[in-house]
Amino acid sequence: MSKLAVITGGESGIGLASAQLLMAQQYQVVVLGLHENEELSRKNIGFYRCDVSSATEVQQAFHKIVAEYGNIDCLINNAGILSYGTAVDLDESEWDRVMAVNVKGPFLCAKYCIPQMNDNAVIINVASVQSFVAQPFVAAYATSKAAILGLTRSIAIDFAPKVRCVAVCPGTIDTPMLRDAMQQAAEPEAMMEELNASHLTGRIGQPEEVAELIAFLCSNKCGFINGQAIRVDGGLGVNIGGSKN
Hints:
There is one protein chain. It is built from eight helices and seven strands; from the N terminus they run βαβαβαβαβαβαααβ. By secondary structure, it is an alpha/beta fold. The protein has one domain (about 5-175, about 205-230): 3-Layer(aba) Sandwich (Rossmann fold), CATH 3.40.50.720. It has a seven-stranded parallel β-sheet, sandwiched between helices. Helix 4 (about 90-115) links the parallel strand 4 and strand 5 (about 115-125). The longest helix is centred in the middle third of the chain and has 22 residues, at about 90-115. It is globular and about 50 Å long.
């Protein structure tokens, strides 16, 4: 019998790549998101419209999923938003919006999913390299991604051995969110060159590369990995800077 995976924010980027890979590995896949697209329906990926920051919508979504598909084996908390601003100039409402999606969302999904999970289930929280290091002007985003590590550890402790919980921490990945951010830059091409150079790989990552790690962690091969944060970041933040010569 195939496993059931639920992915938030699975319409594009890392979430979509994960959905496609898990489908190829014979999982049943359901996406929770705001906008269904042709790619999901073409791949026969289930979809429920859900704002992950709303307790009512999350509770209703998981109720519908279990009624239609049965109990859940994998929850991938991938939905997230990016916001720019320092602790001084960021509006309080924007801070609250980022925390609602990036932190409250994974909490609510875990809250309503865990009671409906099979034994030996796993929750993957998509955090960020910015759970460990940070760039300028992303106070809310960096804080939210650091908070995900605490949530990951707490779920791992509180629900072992029935449910494992692992955080996946990508570096810069070529996603629609990144492309949208680049449009705000004065020189997008120069920004991309800088991003590529900041990774030891000499390039940014692709969604499929993160999806490979997520799928591996969902598999039976990873039963001894729990409560950890795993970086898939091309070596971003390892180099202390300065000349290579």
